[in-house]
Design brief:
The chain has helices at about 10-15, 15-60, 65-70, 80-95, 105-125, 130-160, 165-225. The protein is mainly α. The chain has a domain at about 10-60 and about 130-225. Helix 2 (about 15-60) runs antiparallel to helix 6.
């Protein structure tokens, strides 16, 4: 009896056209998700470091006007907490210079400006996360489709012979299971990364929210000495 080659490479190369297409889709999805994982990981790490640095500068600053001038005059645009602070202080200065607006309205307008800034920063941080969620949820089903198709082909081939042997069905079933394995390989890292990144973004949101409250308290003390 001739020996059946069941190596991964031979199973992929010997798979039917549709199963090869399924494997190609899963490979592209896996590469795309890994690219997003490394990009988002670097982006969140930078956002956390920038938030920590600016919090230290903000709490050590004796003059918030000087801090605002330094942030707004930078050559590179402000990001993260710097952007929130810049939006809040700019709105505060604009409203504070109007004599017809009471201090409570000034503070309320400043808080709204900072909340909008926080929402925009979080929107940028959450970009491409739905792609990871889609890869994590859809990839197993795509792999399962390839598996079902491969097994169907194997059983159809059995119907055309008088005597079935394991060597006849093993390659078809094996190539089908490779599609399932590739689906899981694409899905598992995407799901893990999505959950981890979502948790880190939630913590950053809490950090931004605390900063908004802290900055608002300082402005309120200045408005009511």
């Amino acid at each position: 009896m001739p020996q059946v080659d069941l190596t991964i490479a031979s199973l992929i190369l010997g798979a039917s056209l549709l199963v090869k297409l399924v494997m190609l889709v899963l490979l592209v999805a896996s590469l795309a998700s890994w690219t997003l994982i490394f990009t988002k990981r670097r982006e969140l790490r930078l956002a956390k470091r920038e938030a920590r640095v600016f919090e230290d500068q903000f709490r050590a600053a004796d003059d918030l006007t000087a801090l605002y001038n330094r942030v707004s005059s930078r050559r590179t645009p402000a990001e993260g907490l710097e952007k929130v602070f810049e939006a809040g202080f700019k709105e505060y200065a604009r409203l504070h210079n109007r004599d017809t607006i009471d201090p409570a309205s000034v503070l309320d307008g400043t808080q709204r400006a900072m909340r909008i800034g926080v929402s925009r920063q979080l929107e940028e941080l959450e970009a491409n996360l739905p792609t990871l969620a889609t890869v994590g949820s859809v990839s197993p089903y795509i792999g399962l489709f390839g598996t079902v198709w491969g097994i169907m082909n194997s059983f159809q081939a059995l119907g055309n012979v008088h005597q079935a042997t394991l060597a006849m069905v093993a390659p078809g079933i094996s190539e089908a299971l490779v599609a399932t394995a590739m689906g899981l390989f694409a899905a598992i890292p995407a799901v893990i990364a999505y959950n981890r990144f979502s948790s880190e973004i939630d913590r950053l949101y809490a950090r931004y929210d605390i900063f908004v409250e802290e900055f608002s308290a300082i402005l309120q003390r200045q408005a009511h000495p």
